């Protein structure tokens, strides 16, 4: 079937717009990579675009030569795995009953979940709760528990669960499955797209989190890599610690910061291609159906 002129024009314009969006999305990251492999002087002079100038790996060597770097990376992996498991499990357990219209108190509990999207306790009350009341200061739980359940993720997963055919549960009930059996053997296997989406969201959030650990973790050996790399950037900016002039410190800080960002983002970038198909499908179904 021959394309009409209007459709061909639309396809060309759409392709141009998508190409522009892709370029705008990729350019900052390509620039960051090029900057991390360029010399300090070239970066400071503004000569770097998307290709390294005066190629060097000095800043990567500086960061990777730190004796505790891989310990902090291991801490981040541990926090990300434990936090993601707790968050996804808790979100699914809360979202599943809320997705059932027949649940007697469904309309009573849902507004309480929505309420937390707009109002929070604030920084100081949260700190008192986590550090003083629950005694989780300087533990892994202070990193993974406070943000474990997100109201937005609960609503997203609730919408996905509600989109699943009710006939499947009815058939499973006839076959003798309990509510827990239906959830574990029917609902969860059919929910791989939304579960993969939740895994990606939570892992990225925990991986990049440095503010919470900076509040609750006193022991430096328990730091995540994001907090450690932030310290490296601050040290590079400090002329006292570097023993250099302000201009030289600024040059070094720019390249160290770029290298730190690349190292921090690299694992997530490597994981994303494997969950992308589930991510797109989960977002589409979870946000549209219901």
What does this structure look like?
Helix content is 75%, strand content 0%. It has two domains: 1-57, no CATH class; 67-288, MetI-like (MetI-like fold, Orthogonal Bundle). α1 packs antiparallel against α15. By secondary structure, the protein is an all-alpha fold. The model has no long low-confidence stretch (mean pLDDT 83). It has 15 helices and no strands. It has helices spanning 5-36, 40-44, 58-64, 69-98, 106-118, 123-133, 141-144, 151-163, 166-174, 179-190, 192-207, 211-216, 225-237, 239-242, 246-288.
List keywords for this structure.
290 residues, mainly alpha, MetI-like fold, 15 helices, 75% helix, 0% strand, globular
SS field, number of helical segments: 15
Give the tally of β-strands.
0
Q: Quick one: overall form?
A: globular
SSE run: HHHHHHHHHHHHHHH
Low-confidence stretches: none
CATH class of the largest domain, named Mainly Alpha
Query: Structural class, from secondary structure content?
Result: mainly alpha
- N-to-C span: 36 Å
Q: Indicate the CATH architecture of the largest domain.
A: Orthogonal Bundle
* CATH homologous superfamily classification of the largest domain: MetI-like
CATH topology of the largest domain: MetI-like fold
Strand content: under 5%
């Amino acid at each position: 079937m021959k394309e009409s002129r209007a459709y061909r024009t639309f396809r060309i314009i759409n392709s141009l717009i998508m190409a522009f969006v892709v370029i705008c999305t990729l350019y900052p990251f390509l620039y960051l990579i090029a900057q991390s492999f360029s010399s300090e002087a070239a970066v400071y002079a503004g000569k770097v675009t998307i290709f390294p100038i005066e190629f060097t790996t000095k800043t990567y060597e500086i960061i990777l030569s730190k004796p505790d770097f891989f310990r902090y990376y291991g801490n981040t992996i541990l926090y990300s795995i434990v936090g993601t498991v707790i968050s996804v499990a808790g979100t699914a357990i809360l979202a599943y009953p809320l997705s059932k219209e027949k649940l007697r108190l469904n309309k009573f509990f849902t507004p309480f979940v929505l309420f937390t999207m707009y109002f929070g306790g604030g920084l100081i009350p949260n700190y008192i709760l986590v550090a003083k009341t629950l005694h989780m200061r300087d533990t892994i739980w202070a990193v993974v528990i406070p943000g474990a359940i997100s109201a937005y993720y609960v609503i997203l997963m609730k919408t996905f669960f509600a989109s699943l055919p009710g006939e499947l549960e009815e058939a499973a009930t006839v076959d003798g499955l309990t509510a827990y059996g239906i959830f574990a053997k029917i609902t969860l296997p059919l929910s791989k797209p939304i579960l993969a989406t939740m895994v990606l969201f939570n892992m990225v959030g925990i991986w990049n989190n440095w503010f919470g650990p900076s509040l609750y973790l006193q022991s430096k050996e328990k730091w995540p890599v994001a907090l450690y790399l932030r310290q490296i950037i601050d040290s590079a900016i400090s002329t006292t610690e570097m023993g250099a002039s302000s201009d030289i410190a600024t040059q070094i800080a720019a390249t160290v910061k770029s290298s730190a960002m690349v190292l921090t983002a690299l694992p997530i970038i490597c994981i994303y291609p494997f969950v992308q198909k589930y991510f797109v499908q989960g977002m589409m179904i979870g946000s549209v159906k219901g």
